[in-house]
Design goal:
The protein contains 6 helices and no strands. The protein has about 170 residues and is mainly alpha-helical. Helix 2 crosses helix 6, helix 4 crosses helix 5 and helix 5 packs antiparallel against helix 6. The protein starts with 12 loop residues before the first helix and ends in a 6-residue tail after the last helix. The relative contact order is 0.15.
Length: about 170
């Protein structure tokens, strides 16, 4: 291999980078991978939303423990957020609104990461409230705010990014 080129069959680095990008895009647009990510993200969002929809009072209490909004607004958020999660999850399976659903999920996950970081920086010992009443069934994913909840949401953002790329390039739809 001359000059450190990773792909010896190419003669310049630009071609090898384009080839690597092309191979990566082809892998990320695999219909099986896209559907798997869609099912994982939608399933987690549906479980999270239903657990909070069933007990908005408990979710409102969890929101208040973060100390980021007034009491009255936390009640509104406890009702509003789970329904946005549910609609976005269902939207992953509706082609006309899929891009919007992916956008909303990415926005929510980013906001949750920011909230978790804020809680960690301020030394708050709070439950993430991610799955509401269903938290006991998702013991590995639910629990106190910490690095694991941030990593989980970052991975889900990566899944959403793959879904976005597949949506922008319809050849990946299965």
């Amino acid at each position: 291999i001359v000059s450190g080129n990773r792909f010896p069959w190419t003669k310049n680095k630009l071609v090898s980078k384009k080839l690597a990008l092309s191979l990566m895009m082809r892998y990320l647009q695999n219909p099986f991978l896209v559907w798997t990510f869609r099912l994982i993200v939608a399933g987690l969002f549906i479980a999270a939303s239903l657990g909070k929809i069933l007990n908005p009072h408990e979710f409102s209490g969890i929101i208040r423990k973060f100390h980021v909004m007034p009491h009255a607004l936390s009640n509104t958020a406890a009702i509003f957020i789970p329904w946005v999660e549910l609609v976005a999850a269902i939207g992953l399976f509706v082609p006309r609104i899929r891009k919007g659903a992916i956008w909303w999920m990415t926005l929510m996950l980013s906001g949750f990461i920011a909230l978790f970081l804020w809680a960690m920086i301020n030394g708050l010992d709070v439950d993430c409230g991610c799955f509401g009443e269903f938290g006991k069934y998702f013991a590995l994913l639910a629990g106190d705010v910490g690095l694991s909840s941030i990593i989980r949401n970052a991975v889900l953002i990566c899944f959403c990014r793959v879904l976005w790329v597949a949506e922008v390039n319809p050849s990946a739809q299965g």
